[in-house]
Amino acid sequence: VSLQMMKHAWDNYKRYAWGLNELKPISKQGHSSNLFGNIQGATIVDALDTLYIMEMKEEFKEATEWVEKNLDFNVNAEISVFEVNIRFVGGLLSAYYLSGEEVFRKKAVELGEKLLPAFNTPTGIPWALLNIKSGIGRNWPWASGGSSILAEFGTLHLEFVHLSHLSGNPVFAEKVMNIRKVLNRLDKPEGLYPNYLNPSSGQWGQHHVSIGGLGDSFYEYLLKAWLMSDKTDEDGKKMYYDAVQAIETHLIRKSSGGLTYIAEWKGGLLEHKMGHLTCFAGGMFALGADGAPSDKTGHHIELGAEIARTCHESYDRTRMKLGPEAFRFDGGVEAIATRQNEKYYILRPEVIETYMYMWRLTHDPKYREWGWEAVEALEKHCRVDGGYSGIRDVYINHESHDDVQQSFFLSETLKYLYLLFSEDDLLPFEHWVFNTEAHPLPVLHKDDGNKEENQK
Ligand code: DMJ
C-alpha cells in the first residue's frame, strides 16, 4: 500500500511541480519553501532513496537524470544549514550508498563544501542561515539572544562524518567534532542541554529544554553517531545516556490517566505539552536500549513502548485519527490539543517512525495495527486528486487542507510505513542508521578502513 501511496505522491509532484521544491496538491502547482533558498528539487532529492528501496526503477532513473542535469548549488541563496543538510546532503549520500552512482557522491561533497562557511564563527558553532554564494551567515532573528539552535547545529554530525569518509577530506568531521568539544566544555543546568547557544560568546541563551522542536534530533544524533561508528564513539555514547538520564529525571512524567509523556522545561518549570515532533523519541529510546547499562535495557524498551502508546492515544483521541502538532496534559485533558493553532497535522512521520522501531525491536503486532490505522486515516483525509495534503484541524469532521505535500512525507512517512510492513532484513539496523530525515547511512565498520587500506 505504501508503494501505491508513493506512486500517487510522486506522480502528482512530477505532473504539477517537477523540479520545484514541493507540490501544492490542491492548487496543483509548485510550492517553494524559503528553507532551501532557490536551491530547487527538494522533493526529488528527498525521495531518491525511497524510490530506490521501493524498487520504483523508472522513477529513480528520471530522478537521477534530473539531479545530473539540473541540481545546481551555484545559486545566490540564503538557506537553512540544517534543512539543506538533512534533506539534500542526507538524500544524496543515501542515494549514493544505495545505488553506487558517482553523481550523488560528487554532488553531496560539492554541497558540503558550500556549507563550510557557516562554521566561521568565534566558537565554530555554525550559523543557522547561510548565503551559499557570499558565504555570509546569520541566525534566525527570533532565536534567543542571537543564538544558534541545538537541534540545528547538533544535527550535522552523521552527514559530515560521511562527507569526510567519502571525500578523504577531514575538514567536515573536524567541524562537527569541534561542536562536541564546545558542548562538553559548557556547564549544563541539571545536566540538560538548553535549545539556544550563542555562537559568538559560546554561552547558552534562554534555558529552554525540549525533546521536540529545537532540541529533538541533537539527542538522536548522539546515539546514532555512536551506532554509526560501529560503537566506537564512546564520547557520543556517554553524552547520549547522560542526557537521557537527565531527561528522565526532569522532563518525563506520567499523567493521572497513566500516560507517560515528555514535557518541556523552561528554567526549571515544566510546560505539560508534548509535540508531534517529540514522538520520535519512543523509537530513539528503544533503539538505544541495547547500549544502556545492562540493568536498564528493558527499561529503555519499556520507555519507548510507553511513548509509542501515548502518541497513539494522541491520534486516537482525534476525529480524524491523525495526531495534532502538539497535545497537552493539563487543565483536565490528556493527549489532546487545546489550542486552535496546535490542531494541525502536516503529514509528519514521527509517530509512524516510532511504530517502525518498536515493531523491529519487539515484534509486538500492535505496532503494525497502529501503523495500519494511520494508513487508513491518511487515505481518507489527506489523499486528494493532486497528491497528499496536510490538515488544519484534526478534531473536526470536515477536512480543511493546507495544500502542501511536504517533502518529508516521501522521504520519511512513506518510507517508515514501507519498512514497518517489510521484513527486518531490508536495511537491517546492524548495517544502517537513518538520518533525521530517514535517509539511511551505512555503519562505518571498524575494519572498513583496513579493507580500503588493503585494497590500496
Ligand atoms: C523532518 O524534516 C525531520 O524529521 C526533522 O528532524 C523534523 N521535522 C521534519 C518532519 O516532521
Quick synopsis:
This protein is 47% helix and 11% strand.
Features:
Glycosyltransferase, 456 residues, binds 1-deoxymannojirimycin, disordered C terminus, 11% strand, mainly alpha
Topology (SSEs and partners):
Layout: H1 2-17, E1 22-24, E2 29-31, H2 42-53, H3 57-70, E3 78-80, H4 81-99, H5 102-115, E4 129-131, E5 137-138, E6 148-149, H6 150-153, H7 157-167, H8 171-185, E7 196-197, E8 208-209, H9 216-228, H10 234-250, E9 252-254, E10 260-262, E11 264-266, E12 269-271, E13 273-275, H11 280-287, H12 297-316, E14 326-328, H13 350-362, H14 366-382, E15 383-384, E16 387-388, H15 407-420, E17 432-434, E18 440-442, H16 448-455
Antiparallel strand pairs: 1-2, 3-4, 4-5, 6-7, 8-11, 9-10, 11-12, 13-14, 15-16, 17-18
For the largest beta-sheet, the strand count, sense and barrel status come to:
3 strands, antiparallel
Which CATH architecture would you pick? Alpha/alpha barrel
Distinct helical segment count: 16
Radius of gyration: 21 Å
The general outline is globular
**How many angstroms does the end-to-end distance come to?**
45 Å
Mean pLDDT reading: 97
InterPro entries: 6hp_glycosidase-like_sf, Glyco_hydro_47, Glycosyl_Hydrolase_47, Seven-hairpin_glycosidases
GO molecular function: calcium ion binding; mannosyl-oligosaccharide 1,2-alpha-mannosidase activity
Keywords: Calcium, Disulfide bond, Glycosidase, Hydrolase, Membrane, Metal-binding, Signal-anchor, Transmembrane
Enzyme class: hydrolase
